[in-house]
Design goal:
The chain contains 7 helices and 2 strands, in the order βαααααβαα. By secondary structure, the protein is mainly alpha-helical.
Length: 107
């Protein structure tokens, strides 16, 4: 599985799609994230070129994962074939992978 940081544009789209900026005031977001209100305003407008600590704080608050994962199809294929495994160690490993996939999908 490959982990890659999302682009500022991808993050901005996800933040907008959560409805965070329409359901909460910028002042409220600022106080909950310890990010200055003017910075929240720039993030809401998509006026950021890099994923800074402030952007990450807003992502965390909005429950958006700033990392994209690839290879989920391969992992899910492995999980689908777990019933055919005989080795108990391999079954444990596949179970751990299943838990990791579940966590990634929740974020």
């Amino acid at each position: 599985m490959k982990l890659v940081a999302k682009t500022p544009l991808e993050i901005h789209r996800e933040l907008i799609n959560t409805g965070l900026f329409s359901r909460e005031t910028q002042e409220s977001i600022a106080s909950n994230t310890n990010v200055h209100q003017a910075t929240i305003s720039r993030i809401a407008a998509g006026q950021f070129k890099s994923v800074s600590k402030s952007v990450l704080a807003v992502c965390k608050y909005a429950r958006i994962n700033p990392i994209k994962t690839s290879g989920m199809k391969q992992l899910k294929s492995l999980l689908a074939s777990r019933d055919s495994l005989v080795d108990p160690d391999k079954k444990k490993l596949v179970h751990i992978i299943d838990l990791a996939v579940d966590l990634l999908e929740r974020s």
